[in-house]
């Protein structure tokens, strides 16, 4: 699992409106609409809680410690959905206590292993890995008008990739999986496995959950392919990303966090 770096996320807060504008242009959905759709909800189910949920984001110092602007970025994404969100001044357990004293109804917090959203009053927990998988599959599903019966190439069979495979099967898509570490694919049906990266260009719908940056160049993909890529850093090299940008959705935190917040409103 990739640890986020401040240099990647430092502009999330200032760029959140521009980000959403680009998401809307590429997918036809706002963050709120994507969050609702990913959770099989109507936007009104989320909107109705924007006035009564107070969301606290708690910085966590354990393990490798605080990532500069992480908590502020998470809060800005939640605010973009219309909620009140604040970052606690104190950290860790003391931060949880501060959130409680300030009447927070939902908590967001992450250590090096897991990033969770918790709705205290309603006893709901949302995990960022599952939310990210749901969010990016929904992007792909929406841009192609449904996944049932369609081949979807899944790159990367790690934590998020595994969740994505289950979701693809539930949606009656035809998943094809590629991971350069073939050992990870042991036990999967042979027909599902892509035998080499040279075949990536045969697919138009791609989910990229790999976390090794810059290993895909333009000539490895179909120019009409759509890539929903939660993996960070992005697999496409910088120049190739710019060429293909209208058909690539990739971010560091925005979709996953927005889908988590929607889940807490269920
Ligand atoms: O509070 C902080 O600033 C830090 N403790 C945040 C740590 C963020 N955690 C990560 O980046 C981990 N790799 C887990 C992310 C899960 C994403 N699916």
Structure description:
By secondary structure, the protein is α/β, with parallel strands linked by helices. Helices cover 36% and strands 17% of the residues. A 5-stranded mixed beta sheet has the order 2-1-3-4-5, with helices on both faces. Helix 3 packs across helix 10 (254-263), helix 7 (128-144) packs across helix 8 (159-170) and helix 7 crosses helix 10 (254-263). The chain binds N~5~-D-lysyl-L-ornithine. Residues 1-4, 59-60, 66-67, 70-71, 110-112, 115, 128-129, 132 line the site of N~5~-D-lysyl-L-ornithine (2YJ).
Secondary structure blueprint with pairings:
Blueprint lengths: L5 H4 L6 H12 L3 H8 L4 H5 L6 E5 L11 H11 L3 E4 L4 H10 L4 E5 L4 E5 L4 E4 H17 L6 E5 L3 H12 L3 E5 L26 E4 L17 E4 L8 H7 L3 E3 L3 H10 L3
Parallel strand pairs: 1-2, 1-3, 6-7, 6-8, 8-9, 9-10
Antiparallel strand pairs: 3-4, 4-5
Helix pairs in contact: 3-7, 3-10, 7-8, 7-10
The structure holds N~5~-D-lysyl-L-ornithine (2YJ).
Number of helices: 10
In total, how many beta strands? 10
Strand content: 15-25%
Any idea what the shape is? Answer: globular
Q: How many strands, which pairing sense, and closed or not: the largest β-sheet?
A: 5 strands, mixed
What structural category do the secondary elements indicate? alpha/beta
Strand order within the widest beta sheet: 2-1-3-4-5
Bound molecules: N~5~-D-lysyl-L-ornithine
- End-to-end Cα distance, whole Å, is 27 Å
Computed over alpha carbons, the radius of gyration is 18 Å
Percent helix range: 25-40%
- Reading the helices and strands in chain order gives HHHHEHEHEEEHEHEEEHEH
Q: What is the typical, i.e. mean, pLDDT?
A: 97
Q: pLDDT below 50 for ≥5 consecutive residues: which ranges?
A: none
């Amino acid at each position: 699992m990739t640890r986020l770096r401040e240099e990647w996320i430092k502009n999330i807060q200032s760029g959140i409106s521009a980000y959403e504008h680009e998401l809307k242009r590429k997918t036809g959905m706002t963050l709120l609409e994507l969050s609702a759709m990913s959770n099989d909800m109507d936007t009104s189910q989320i909107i109705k809680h924007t006035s009564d949920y107070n969301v606290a984001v708690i910085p966590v110092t354990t393990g490798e410690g605080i990532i500069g602007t992480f908590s502020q970025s998470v809060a800005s994404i939640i605010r973009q959905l219309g909620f009140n969100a604040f970052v606690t001044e104190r950290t860790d357990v003391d931060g949880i206590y501060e959130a409680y004293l300030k009447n927070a109804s939902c908590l967001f917090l992450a250590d090096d292993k897991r990033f969770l959203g918790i709705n205290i009053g309603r006893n709901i927990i949302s995990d960022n890995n599952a939310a990210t998988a749901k969010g990016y599959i929904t992007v792909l599903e929406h841009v192609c008008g449904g996944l049932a019966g369609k081949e979807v190439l899944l790159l990367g069979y790690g934590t998020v990739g595994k969740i994505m495979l289950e979701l693809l099967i539930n949606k009656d898509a035809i998943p094809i999986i590629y991971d350069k570490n073939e050992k990870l694919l042991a036990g999967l049906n042979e027909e599902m496995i892509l035998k080499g990266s040279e075949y990536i260009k045969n697919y138009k719908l791609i989910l990229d959950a790999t976390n090794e940056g810059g290993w895909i160049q333009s000539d490895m993909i179909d120019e009409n392919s759509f890539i929903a890529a939660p993996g960070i850093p992005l697999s496409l090299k910088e120049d190739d990303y710019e060429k293909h940008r209208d058909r690539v959705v990739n971010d560091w935190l925005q979709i996953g966090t927005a889908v988590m917040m929607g889940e807490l409103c269920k």
